Amino acid sequence: MNKIVFFLETKIPIGDNQFIFLDLAAYLAENTDIEIYYINNYFKEDASRNLSNKLHFCTPEEFDFEAAGDAAYFTPVNYLMHLIVRIRNCPYAKVCLYQYSNQALEWLSRNMDYVCSQKAIDDFINEYDARAYFNLSCVGRQVSFKNNNEIVFLPNVLGEKCSYSFEFRGLIDRDRINIGLLGPLNSETVYTLYNLFANFQISQNNKKTDIHIIGKSKIFLNDVFKKSSSNRTRIIFTGELNKENRKNYINKNVDMVLANSSYAIEAATCAVPVILPVSQNKPYIGNNYVYLFDAKGYKYNLDYSSLIALGSISHPLSEILDDIYIYDKKEKLARDCYKYCAENNALEVVSSKFLDFIESS
Q1: Angle at 246 between CA 46 and CA 212, to 5 degrees
Q2: DSSP characters over 60-122
Q3: Which residues make Cβ contacts (< 8 Å) with residue 309, sequence separation at least 6?
Q4: What was the pLDDT predicted at 124?
Q5: Per-residue pLDDT reduced to its tens digit, 239-251
Q6: Distance (Å, rounded) from C-alpha 277 to C-alpha 290?
Q7: For 292-309, how does the pLDDT look when each residue is reduced to its tens digit (9 = 90+)?
Q8: Which residues contact residue 327 at a Cβ distance below 8 angstroms, ignoring those fewer than 6 apart?
Q9: How far is it, in rounded angstroms, from Cα 233 to Cα 212?
């Protein structure tokens, strides 16, 4: 295997479940002798994420697909037709697929003008054993495996080698709760914050509370939640920060972080407990939170249906607060979250699984 091509053709900068394409490509370019190419429409956000001088960073128009010969291509299931059009004159090319949504087959069928049913496409892909998954919820009921050990999972990755030190800091203020929400605050994630307020009210915790919104937020949401600040609860907006500044802010200002998806993995490097809020993208009432190390099936974005389906262990907010502020478990919980990510999400771990997948497919 001399060449691996990570192929996308997105219309906007890559997002959470696509970061793995660029992060793996950059890591493999730096740490192997394989020629690695990242193919996508150009976006400055993607270019700034690429930390490798050895990675060939091309647009689909710039890349010579025929000259790549027997390269191995890694592409999302729903981009398969985009790729096939490009490599139709490359009979020795190898294609490996990545399914990052349980709707991917529907999207692909739609791209094919519904000439093939989702089941027909799925059966065809299964014949060649050349598909990896983002997490267990992406597998879908229509796929039949003897057990999950036969499924290749390539989950959210830490966008750096897992070689940093664990710089733990004790409680910021034993008499005041400091909790961070990491990631953009928008019309979808805002319900997590509304629900957090409700759960603080029923937690019977008498400590004053600082809620740190760490990331970009819509101006109108800032105005709404600034009005929610009181003598007992303060809402603190950091605005958009780069990754290093986010890490420093979290380590110095919060005792725990609520986050989803790649932000949850990032937060584990900040030496704080990381909690996955079980939430909906609409108004809801619930009091379920999952420690990152208790996540099942590499699913880090939980709603109530996935919580039940995966059997993840959840806790009410009051138990989380007691663990950290009464039972002094902040360091243990932080280390458990860090260890989980080192074993499951470190680039060196996921890249090894990826290379085995490419070789064996």
Answers
A1: 125
A2: TTTS-TTTTTT-EEEEEGGGHHHHHHHSTT-TT-EEEEEE-STTHHHHHHHHTTTSS-HHHHH
A3: 137
A4: 75
A5: 889 888 999 999 9
A6: 6
A7: 999 999 999 999 888 888
A8: none
A9: 11
Tokens 């696509």 correspond to what residue? Answer: 18
Strand-pairing partners, residue 257, are 180, 274
pTM for the full predicted model: 0.88
Specify the range with the lowest mean pLDDT, choosing from 10-19, 264-273, 331-340: 10-19
**Residues 158 and 347 sit within 8 Å (Cβ to Cβ):** yes
pLDDT, one tens digit per residue, over 194-225 is 889 889 888 877 889 999 999 987 655 555 56
Task: Write the DSSP symbol of residue 356.
Answer: H
Q: Which residue has the tokens 């790649």?
A: 262
Exposed (0-12), middle (13-18) or buried (19+): which is 221, by Cβ within 10 Å?
A: middle
Rounded Cα distance, 238 and 248, in Å: 12
CA-to-CA dists, residue 228 to 190, 231, 233, 317, angstroms:
13, 10, 8, 19
- Give exposure, 301-314, as e/b (b: 16+ Cβ within 10 Å): bbbeebbeebebeb
